[in-house]
Amino acid sequence: MKKVFVTGATGLLGTNTIIKLLQYDYYVTALVRKKSSWMGEENENLRLIEGDLFSDISEHLHGVDAVIHIAAETSQALLHYKDYKKTNYDAVVHLFAQTVSARAGKFLFVSTANTLGYGNPVALGNEKAPQLYPFTCSYYAQSKLETENYLLRQNRETKVMIVNPTFMIGAYDHKPSSGKIIFWAWKKKFVFYPKGGKNFVHAEDVAEGIIKAIENGKNGEKYLLANENLTYKEFFRKVNTITKQAPVMIPIPNSGLVVLGIIGDVLRKLKIKTSLSSPNMKALRINNYYSNRKSSEDLEVRYQTVDKAVKDAIHFFERKNMNLKQVERKIN
């Protein structure tokens, strides 16, 4: 039985990944802040250990075939690069050093598609495309790219694979994180949407891609885990169709997003945390599109539809009796 160590175990992707690892008969040791935060079922092949990303976990890495590092600081509201670097770079360096010392064979780093250049419907972004604005001005994306570059320089003793997921939707998004986008359209009479678009992928498929990268990925390679390129309007229409709603769809003028970005820039200079910023508002105005050709061909990942991802997310929210007010309280 193969053994793996996983961080970020209680988030959307971490939960989906551990559930799938157990289905594939892996023995999983997972790092959590509190054992009570684990949302999946108990399993004799799952061991939860409490700690943080700077804990000494070396005793748990001996005999491990691979370390899967998912945990990250993903907030878009933090004001300084150092706020991201601590979790997204320093903690990874700490964990990777312990992985090498324990002689684990592989280290898989979950990054983001935004370290790679996006494309458009005619020419999609891929693993070789260099990072582009506005993500070159995103502290989150910058911290991920710095970590990618570090790991790819250190992959001699321990093999390094990097996966670059796009925007994930699915079950077990208990915060919620990316699933907040569903609440923009769900149970609304009016839906305001930006004119850009992005690539959406089922969180289950990203979990599948992680496992296939561990099993079949090549040392020093990056793999985009991506699926459907959709405008925001197309995505919200899917949510409306699935939830059997017919709200009024209203486009947000690009000029309005520019103004919001400027307002956010001013607030940030006043040391007020906000996700509003010129780069973030620019991201809503572009077609942030990617190709999954490499992961489909090299890893043989088979992607489910975004409709399925949305349905699974909504069913999860309904089971947990989550509503818009609860989401707003979590966000605030």
UniProtKB/TrEMBL annotation:
Residues 4-224 form the NAD-dependent epimerase/dehydratase domain. One of its GO terms (cellular component) is cytoplasm. InterPro entries: Epimerase_deHydtase, NAD(P)-bd_dom_sf, NAD(P)-dependent_oxidoreduct. SUPFAM superfamilies: NAD(P)-binding Rossmann-fold domains. GO terms for molecular function: aldehyde dehydrogenase (NAD+) activity. Pfam families: Epimerase. PANTHER family: NAD(P)-BINDING DOMAIN-CONTAINING PROTEIN-RELATED, PROTEIN YEEZ. This is Dihydroflavonol 4-reductase. It comes from Chryseobacterium elymi.
